[in-house]
Amino acid sequence: SFHQTRHNSGRSLGVRVIISPRQISEATEARRRRTHGELCSRAPPRGHRGRLRPRRSRRGRAHLPLRLLRRRLRHGHRYVRSTVMVGNGSMHACVKRVWNYMYMWYVYAGRLAGGADTIMGLTAVALAHAMVVAVMVSAGLHVSGGHINPAVTLSLAAGGHITLFRSALYVLAQLLGSSLACLLLAFLAGSAATMPVHALSAGVSAPQGVLWEAVLTFSLTFTVYATVVDPRRSVGNLGPLLVGLVVGANVLAGGPFSGACMNPARSFGPALVSGIWACQWVYWVGPMIGGLLAGLVYDGLFMVRPGHQQLPSEGTAF
To answer: Which of 104, 175, 278, 285 is the most exposed place for a label (fewest CB within 10 A)?
Structure first.
């Protein structure tokens, strides 16, 4: 209870006014309703085209109409944020399409010249892959992550590094860029029959091809995690170059056996243009298995989670 003593001419009259908390809350509610009714009944003066500024209570809080408007705006920002995220993801997907288009253009333009079956030709193809991958990843890394491989993209999505929605947009953009590049190359070459398609070498079975692609993609994705994704990386900005070198080394090692695709988008575009789908599933299953395994291994064994303190790298006496 609230006790108040009134004084008159320095003498205490002994009068106590007792107000219960319930009476205080009822008086506050009645005052709020009265001020709300006055606010709603107010009309703008004649000749005034603008809106009256809402009145505020003594505590500084806006009255009910303005509070409701703020509440709706507070909850409505979710839809605005979703729209912005969709637009941002679409823009990044367009960037992916451009990067993958340029990547497929340089890679298959070199293979159209022929000579990939010889040692010198295989070395030239490996160097072309290394340089193109390094340049394309470096060019797109600060824009949208430099994704040009669906296997790596889905591996990062499985590890929670990017959202599933964005990874789906990336994969669609990669496949579209590969298809457009191969269509243009087929038009310039004069025939789609000259488009080189990934195929297993003689004596290599489909399970062996899947294993080859899984191993090669595992090494590629593991390098991406270690040199680009991991925040503890000690190579600075050399991650894209190291990824390109791994791609070139894998082409030299696995090219004579399975073609060293390591990228489902690389096999999808030529197969779509030429109409040759033989063993196409090998170049999807193998890279997906290798990419997912590499992501699980690195995330589970080597990636430092937030809140964990890294052990000292120098020798320490225990």
So the answer is: 278
